Amino acid sequence: MRKRAADRTAAHHFYGPSMTIAHLAEEPASARSGLDPLGVLVALGAIPGLLLPFAVFKANRIVPGEGVLLWEALPAFPAAIGLAWIVLCIIVALWRMPPAVKLAASASSLLVLLLLIGIAAQAMTPSGDNYARIGIGAGFWLLAFVLALMLTDALARLRPGPWLRLALLLTAWVAVGIILWSGAWDALSIVKEYGSRAPAFWQEARTHLFLAFGSVALATAIGLPLGIACYKFIALRAGALNLLNVIQTIPSIALFGVLIAPLAWVAANVPGASAAGISGIGVAPAMVALTAYALLPVVANTIVGLNGLPDATVEAARGMGMTWLQRLLQVELPLAFPVILTGIRIVLVQNIGLATIAALIGGGGFGVFVFQGVGQTAIDLVLLGAAPTVSLAFAAAVLLDSFIELSSKRATA
């Protein structure tokens, strides 16, 4: 009993009042044995990933195909090297190690995985067969997921600065670009789908970017003044936010459909509207709907950012004789900018994804390939639209997160 009391006292002094020997007893055995809990999760995901089909052989682009395991899809030497590398990465994940080691292991394993799927596609494609397709199997996706989870955890522990995060993002894009440029993925079905649709792909890419970034620009141009007005005139705030909340509750497809009739009427009855590109279907209703969805985060974050300013700072600016416009432009908006930019980040990532739905009303974008693929039961055509959408959303999130951090440091300097 005395020993237990002494242990409890020592733990109290060492860990603080919130940590006692009882808490230590509740710690999982993995923590005491040196196992990394997330590494155990990575290993549990990687094992079925190795046992699921790594690639899928299809006689043509629309048949379901037959799954092939990693060591069956690859020649003997690449299969041995790839398996050894992935297993080594799993071992690194299991044990508590410096985050830099885990980052290097997961990043290199992801690169090896990307190279292996290209080698597998080349090895599995019959010579002279122009109809066969090699798809990406569930095993590849599960391995890529758990390795990406390990990589993001290592990055979170390292806490890289904004410039380093941007450098890492650029490195990842360059690595994927080199793989595509080298032709390592040319035998993959998704790349063959791109090859037969390259002009259409880049046209829809421009449309997708126009819809996503154009709607965010319009929402910022409308939402920023509206948020400032709600900040200055409290009576306006409740009504504006309630209206924008109602818009957010409308499903995206329903909102696109609701806009068809009024915009068709405008195109038919307003001189010059049709010539300006306004119509019941196409880019116009998609742009209006995406802008409407983006307004609430922009307006709400503008109000929150301006309301959160220190009273002493605002009073000091007022004491210096600044007018309300001078205070707004020179003091309040610069200090609230990181919070406002957070709202813009939310709507940009959101609209990059929502722009996919615009294809249903003729708005174009990457959704064209997604819905064509669904209609043709061609999963690789779906991926041709989904993969760049996810990549764009991820890149936008990293870019704006870095800019938010940089602007926050500048605002507090």
TrEMBL record:
Signal peptide segment: none
InterPro entries linked to this entry: ABC_transp_perm/SBD, MetI-like, MetI-like_sf
A GO term from the CC aspect: plasma membrane
Gene Ontology biological process: glycine betaine transport; transmembrane transport
UniProt keyword list: Membrane, Transmembrane, Transmembrane helix, Transport
A Pfam family reported for this protein in Swiss-Prot or TrEMBL: BPD_transp_1
Chief site of localization: membrane
Domain ABC transmembrane type-1 per the UniProt entry, residue ranges: 205-405
Presence of keyword Repeat: no
Keyword Transmembrane: yes
Cell compartment(s), UniProt: Cell membrane
Membrane topology label: Multi-pass membrane protein
Classification via PROSITE patterns: ABC_TM1 (PS50928)
Domain of life according to the entry: Bacteria
Entry coiled-coil feature ranges: none
Membrane spanning stretches: 38-56, 76-95, 107-125, 131-151, 163-184, 209-231, 243-267, 273-296, 328-348, 354-374, 381-400
Similarity comment: family membership: Belongs to the binding-protein-dependent transport system permease family.
Protein's name in the database: Osmoprotectant transport system permease protein
Source organism per UniProt: Devosia lucknowensis
